[in-house]
Structures are given as structure tokens and as C-alpha cells.
Amino acid sequence: MKTIRHYCSRSLTKALVIMVTASAILCGCGTVSMSPSKDVKIAVLTYDEHDTFVDSMTKYMTKWCRQKEKETGKRITLSVVGAKKSQLTQNDQVQKFISENYDVLCVNLVDRTDAMVIIDKAMESDTPVIFFNREPVEEDLSRWDKIYYVGALARQSAEMQAKIITDALSDPQKFASIDANDNGTIQYVILEGEAGHQDTLVRTSVCPKELMKAGFSLEKLGDEYANWDRDQGRTRMRELIDRYPFQIEMVIANNDDMALGAIDAIEESNYPLDPFVVGINGTEEALEAIRTMKLDGTVYNDSKGQAEMIMEMAYALGSNEEFPGNVDLTFNKYVFTPYSMITYDNVQKYLRQ
Questions:
Q1: How far apart are the C-alpha atoms of 80 and 310, rounded to whole Å?
Q2: Is the CB of residue 147 less than 8 Å from the CB of residue 128?
Q3: How far is CA 171 from CA 178, 253, 269, 341, in A?
């Protein structure tokens, strides 16, 4: 019996050792494979949830995050809110996300000249900020080394918009069709974006200057603010049509939504002329309007490229990593994506994207 008890005791001890060892190994393996790396919390704050271009950017951001989660196994919390064009609301939203320990703030400012409160809150909490689409003034961007801006150069969009027009006017047959009164001067109206917005200021001034520099004779009949909005674009264009019932030969719009609004007004009023209409952004509806020859051209603003760039930067900042190699910073602050021209001749390329 002693022998048996001794044997059982040794066997039991051996079994216990094996179990403990196996448990330790499993626990150890669990620590290596199951312990999650730091999750990333990214807040995206837009000036207005109804802006077509900004809405397309947030959709691309969401898509990028879901793909990144699959690739890394790391959870990414992406929260997107709109401020309904109220800077005070946006300031409160920033404070809320900071109090909830979000790692990065991506901010599409309501008022580009009033970023001070947001920057103060970010600096106090050491929360990096990536501004996008609506560029803060240089003095605000230079206040801290964890502030960045992602967008595109407004002047380039205006120059390309002018190039679309000059290419058309350089064709004698096309010029004759645009110059309805055959006086050698193109009479035009401008639908402007938002007062004080850097893109509005630059696009409104640069495009006509480029046309005159190219040697064309122009006469501006009028301009109206339509705040990037299609319905406002329609309303403002109806007002311009009432003032100039037989004169408008061209419509230069600061963005596609306003250009489409102008086309709506032209069609609804049975306007006797067929104005040459150009926009900027390359939204899906604008591309379709170009394909059906309602809109004459637009300048593609790379919403997908900008959205992915913002997320690349936000993810790196939230993970305490260096920016990836494709993040090309200018002055350690700015990332600019290039524009491109779209007309009927190349619209199919963009429709396939």
C-alpha cells in the first residue's frame, strides 16, 4: 500500500506540475496574443453636416478606419458630429471630446478666424488637432507644434477653373456659342461661397484675373453669396436671372453645389440663353451633370485623398507613432493634395473611381 500511495502521490504531484506549467504557458501566451494594444479614439467635428463635400470626406474617413481595424486588429473609435454652422456649438463639442479622453481632434472649423478657443483647450489637454478644409489663419496654426492642416491650395483650384474656361473660349466655335450677343465680351456672374472663407476670397478673385490675363474680354454683371449650398445657389441665380433676363453668358461658381443650383434655376426659368457653367469639387452629382452635358466643367478636389491623409495622421498621433512616409508636411504644418480638371472629355475616368 505504501508503494501504491507513494506512486499515486508522485503521479498526482507530476500531474499538478504539468497542469500548473500548462496553465502558466497558456496564461503567458494569452498575455502575448490577447493583450490589446492601445485603442485609438478620433473625433471629427464638421462645420455643417449637410455640406456635400465634407460629408463625402467623413464617409471616406469611416471606410478607412474600418479597413485599418481589419489590418491591425486595433479598435478605432471614430465619432463624427456637425456644428450646424455655430462656432460656439463646435467649441462645446471639442470640450466634450477632450473630457472623454479622445486622442485626436479633426476639426472643420465653422469660423476659420476663430480657432483660438479650440486651440487653447487642445493645448491644455495635450490633444493634437488636425484642421481640415477650412484653413485657420497662420498665426493660430503656428501657436503649437501639435496643430496641423490638411486641404488643397485654393489658388490652384481657381487657376484650373479658369483653364477650363479658357480652353473652351479658345475654340472659335465654342466661343461663338457662349458669346450669345456676339459682341466679343463674355458677360458673367459669380456665385460665391461663404463670406470670409479663404477659398471664396481666392477663387472669386483669381479666376476672372486669369481669364483676363489670357486676353479675353469680360464683363461681370453681378455676384451673390450662396454659402456653398445648392438651394441658395438656385435662389441667388433666380435673382440674377430676374436682373439680367437676356445677358448671362457664363456662371462661375465657387463650388459644385452652387453651380448645380444655378443650373436648376436656369432650367426652371426657361432662360433663353445657355450659359457656360463651371464649379469646383468634383462631387458625384456634378460628375453626373458633366456626363449629361448640363455642367460644363469642374475642378476635382480630392476628398478621398484628403480624408485618408487625415486618418493616417490621426491614427499615428493617437498611437504615438511617427507619421507614415506618404504624409508630406510643408513647414511641418500643412498637407496639400493636388486638384485636377474635369470636363466631358475625361469625366468617365472620375465616374469609375
A1: 13
A2: yes
A3: 11, 22, 29, 17
Dihedral, CA of residue 188, residue 189, residue 192 and residue 198, to nearest 10: 30
pTM of the model as a whole: 0.84
DSSP string across 109-148? -SSTT--HHHHHHHHHHT--EEEESSPPPHHHHTT-TTEE
Give start and end residues of each alpha helix (H) in 172-247: 172-178, 198-213, 230-243
Give one DSSP letter per residue of 240-296, joined into a string.
Answer: HHHH-TTT--EEEESSHHHHHHHHHHHHHTT-SS--EEE-SB--HHHHHHHHTTSS-
pLDDT block averages, 10 residues each, the chain of length 353 = 35 36 36 52 96 96 97 96 97 98 98 96 98 95 97 97 98 97 97 92 97 97 97 98 97 98 98 97 97 98 96 97 94 96 96 75
Going by the DSSP 8-state scheme, the letter that residue 80 receives in this structure is: E
Provide the residue type at 68 as one letter.
K
Phi–psi pair at 117, nearest 5 degrees: -65, -45
* Residue 241 identity: I
Sign of CA dihedral 285, 290, 295, 299: positive
Helix, strand, coil percentages for the chain (3-state, nearest 5): 50, 20, 30
The span from the CA of 196 to the CA of 180, in Å, is 34
Residue 36 falls in which region: left (phi positive, over 0), alpha (psi -120 to 50) or beta:
beta
CB 68 within 8 A of CB 324: no
pLDDT value, residue 337: 95
Report all structural domains of the chain as residue ranges with CATH numbers, in order of start.
40-152+303-337 (3.40.50.2300), 154-300 (3.40.50.2300)
Using alpha carbons only, how large is the chain's radius of gyration in Å?
A: 28
> Using CA atoms, how far apart are residues 287 and 313, in angstroms rounded to an integer?
29
